[in-house]
């Protein structure tokens, strides 16, 4: 096979999900079982945790 010189396809530097949190600590993988409705809530909260950890802390502190 000949090499593709047109720049299409293949791996790119800096592409893909970042393996570390902003603090530089690697993000570990975890598994859990959840219903579809539970999973949607988990996804929404995970998005908040990653984008605004302070807000997530306040949400968890609320009774």
UniProtKB/TrEMBL annotation:
Q: What domain of life is recorded for the organism? A: Bacteria
Q: What is the lineage of its organism?
A: Bacteria, Bacillati, Bacillota, Negativicutes, Selenomonadales
Region described as Disordered: 1-38
Species in which this protein is naturally found: Selenomonas ruminantium
Name of the protein described by the UniProt record? Uncharacterized protein
């Amino acid at each position: 096979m000949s090499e593709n010189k047109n720049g299409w396809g293949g791996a790119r530097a800096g592409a893909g999900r970042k393996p570390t949190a902003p603090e530089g600590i690697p993000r570990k993988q975890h598994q859990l079982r959840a219903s579809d409705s539970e999973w949607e809530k988990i996804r929404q909260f995970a998005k908040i945790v990653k984008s605004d950890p302070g807000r997530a802390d306040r949400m968890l502190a609320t009774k």
